[in-house]
Structures are given as structure tokens and as C-alpha cells.
Write a structure and sequence with these properties.
Blueprint: H1 10-14, H2 18-31, H3 37-43
């Protein structure tokens, strides 16, 4: 079952590279969403940094992408 937040996930919305977001979506959103660092924070009621990638690393240049 895919992640219920995949469609509106700010990570996918802000990163405009379709190949990159599709790869993340397949691995994390469709198959292994329990491992997504973003959904873990959401479920814990914690704020989710915009630059947090599903693997838990920070995308350094995300702030240069348009909002």
C-alpha cells in the first residue's frame, strides 16, 4: 500500500526533476514508505524540514528551487 501523503508531499512538489522524484516515489512512497524519514517525523508530530529527503539526508540546495 502506498503512502497516504505521497501525492501532496512537499519534497516531490518542490523538486522539479521528474526522474529524481519518480525514483524516490517508487522506492519510498510506493514500496517502503515506513522507512521514509519524512513520514516518520509527520507521525511523531514533529516538523519536517523542506530539504529533508526520504532517506533522512538533507538536500543542500533545495532552497534554490522555487516554492
Amino acid at each position: 500500500m502506498p503512502c497516504e501523503r505521497a501525492q501532496g508531499c512537499p519534497f516531490h512538489v518542490r523538486v522539479k526533476n521528474a526522474a529524481l522524484t519518480e525514483a524516490w516515489r517508487i522506492f519510498y512512497c510506493d514500496d517502503s514508505w515506513e522507512r521514509c524519514a519524512r513520514i516518520k517525523l509527520v507521525r511523531a508530530g514533529q516538523p519536517v524540514p523542506a530539504e529533508l529527503m526520504p532517506n533522512g539526508k538533507l538536500l543542500r540546495h533545495l532552497n534554490s528551487f522555487p516554492k
